[in-house]
Specification:
Blueprint: E1 15-18, E2 21-24, H1 39-42, H2 49-74, H3 78-91, H4 96-108, H5 112-123, H6 132-149, H7 153-166, H8 171-183, H9 187-200, H10 205-216, H11 221-238, H12 245-252, H13 254-268, H14 272-285, H15 289-301, H16 305-317, H17 325-344, H18 348-361, H19 366-378, H20 382-395, H21 399-418, H22 422-435, H23 439-451, H24 455-468, H25 473-483, H26 488-497, H27 525-528, H28 538-545
Antiparallel strand pairs: 1-2
């Protein structure tokens, strides 16, 4: 704390201001500085001339070092200033202004013990200014804070008490003493110092908050309720919207605490339903987010997922609430089990809604996407199911999810093929085959090419199917009946061109016809026969890569 020069008008030492710290200057030179001598002894007539000359020379040299030190202090060169003051003190050891200047330098470089030693030396002098004890008090206070940070509470409290004895007007010091006594579990002393601050600042609600929380740590429950309630009423009058009011209100509601503690005891012995009953009674008194969260987790533990959602979801939806990962996981799992219940009862739409909420709170659970994909698939929403199976594969690299995705893409392509949307069907089939190669997808793609009048690509697609499965009767029938228009000669030419082994006794009458989803389209046979087709086609090369 800095003190103004005007606070010490009667000091025998004059004060200069160098920056923010008052510096007492040296008095005017005198022949003899000892005030205990009488006038005859202090008269220059009784002192030899050479003694006066030596004393004057010593004083001038000491004052020069002092001025050099003050100049260095103003520049922030405190180490060099201490060196100059040491020289001045060596010449005039009884000049307390030099000692005071050195103490200020020690304090500026955080040499607390050095500052204390020099301040005490100044205080022991009868001519010390009135504000010097305050500077010493500040040094003790700073030293106490250092020890407090180290956890040395006894030493810190000793320094604080010395500072308090020198100057009792430092409110920060009093609060520091309160904290030290609390750390040492000396509640009576802590209350005594805190009450001094409350008497001085009786309109400050934060002090009452501190006192209420100190009473909270007492063992006497009745005392806690009475004192906390008393301080809470004062806080409400001074600051009705104080942020600590809700917290203190919960302390006053001791029955809530009792119910909560009883609930923990029941959980410890495995009586979860009784614990839920205790928490429910507590929530009826005060609807606290923590109590709701604990009850929601207990509901999840016993499988009451609907009530778990009712407790946990409002907590999660509050933007300012810091929700733990456990709460989010349990909430998502509650929605997932709720969705499973809807599936068992055959309500797929509600199941999709519930599992979508589960994914919202936990987007990394594979089983959530799998369940929603199955629900979409049951409603023939294959596009949505494909997206969910793709997420399953991204989260868990399992080939089964790719097979499911490819199978659904094939179903989508079949639907588009039936709707005669051949272009989109072809795009979907390409995506399907890129995911997992399905023979039926290759066959349908060949038929789609044929519908798009791309006979060459259709032939290559059928050849690709026959290379994978030479006995595929449907591919044989499509090649013979549709592409070759029933001509055994054209069929033989195509098989020879692509080096395919001829079908056993292939002819229109020998091949067992299979029902087909496509409608027969009559094309010119000559356009379907390509005798000069190279043996390795584009589709074949892609198949070989796969």
């Amino acid at each position: 704390m800095l003190y103004d020069v005007q606070t010490v008008p009667q000091s025998p030492l004059k004060v200069e201001s160098t920056g923010t710290t008052p510096i007492p200057t040296t008095p005017k030179p005198s022949v003899e500085s000892d005030s205990n001598k009488d006038l005859s002894e202090r008269s220059p007539l009784h002192i030899p001339y050479h003694v006066i000359a030596v004393r004057t020379l010593v004083y001038e040299k000491a004052e020069k070092h002092n001025l050099n030190g003050l100049s260095m202090m103003s520049k922030g060169r405190f180490i060099a200033a201490i060196s100059e003051f040491n020289k001045a003190i060596y010449l005039l050891p009884r000049e307390m202004s030099y000692v005071f200047h050195r103490a200020e330098c020690y304090l500026s470089i955080n040499d607390i013990q050095g500052a204390i030693d020099n301040y005490r030396r100044v205080c022991q002098n009868s001519f010390q200014p009135k504000f010097v004890p305050r500077r010493l008090a500040k040094a003790y206070f700073t030293h106490g804070l250092v020890e407090m940070d180290k956890g040395q509470l006894y030493i810190a409290l000793e320094k604080f008490e010395r500072s308090y004895n020198l100057f009792k007007g430092n409110d920060q010091l009093i609060m520091a003493m309160v904290m030290c006594h609390l750390g040492l579990d000396e509640m009576d002393e802590a209350f005594a110092y805190l009450n001094k601050l409350i008497q001085k600042y009786d309109k400050e609600p934060d002090l009452y908050v501190i006192r209420a929380k100190m009473y909270q740590s007492q063992e006497d429950v009745s005392l806690i309720i009475a004192q906390v309630y008393h301080n809470l009423e004062i806080i409400k009058k001074l600051h009705p919207n104080h942020p600590e009011v809700p917290y203190l209100q919960r302390i006053v509601n001791d029955i809530v605490v009792q119910y909560r503690n009883k609930a923990f005891e029941f959980v410890g012995v495995g009586e979860v339903r009784k614990a839920i009953t205790c928490l429910t009674k507590a929530i009826l008194i005060i609807k606290d987010a923590l109590l709701l969260t604990q009850r929601g987790l207990l509901f999840h533990q016993i499988g009451d997922y609907r009530h778990a959602i009712e407790d946990l979801q409002p907590i999660v939806e509050q933007e300012k609430m810091d929700v733990s990962k456990e709460v989010l996981t349990k909430l998502a799992d509650s929605f997932y089990h709720l969705a499973l219940g809807f599936v068992r009862y055959g309500d797929g739409h509600e199941a999709i809604k519930a599992v979508s909420q589960a994914i919202r709170y936990n987007s990394t659970a594979v089983e959530y996407y799998k369940l929603r994909a199955e629900c979409h698939e049951s409603f023939e929403r294959y596009s949505e199911a494909v997206n969910d199976y793709s997420m399953c594969y991204n989260l868990h690299d399992d080939p089964i999810y790719n097979q499911m995705t490819s199978s659904l893409l094939y179903k989508i392509a079949v639907q588009k093929y039936k709707d005669k949307n051949y272009v989109k069907a072809l795009d979907t089939l390409n995506r399907c085959i890129k995911t997992v190669v399905l023979v039926e997808a290759l066959l349908l793609r060949a038929k789609t090419f044929y519908k798009l009048q791309n006979t060459k690509a259709a032939i290559e697609g059928i050849i690709e199917v026959l290379k994978i499965n030479p006995g595929n009767v449907e591919a044989q029938r499509f090649l013979l009946e549709d592409i070759c228009n029933g001509s055994d000669t054209d069929l033989a030419n195509i098989l020879q061109a692509y080096s395919i082994v001829p079908f056993p006794e292939y002819s229109t009458n020998e091949i067992k016809l299979q029902p087909d989803i496509i409608e027969p389209v009559n094309h010119n046979t000559s356009s379907a026969i390509i005798p000069n087709t190279p043996k390795t086609s584009i589709i074949e090369s892609q198949f070989q890569k796969l």
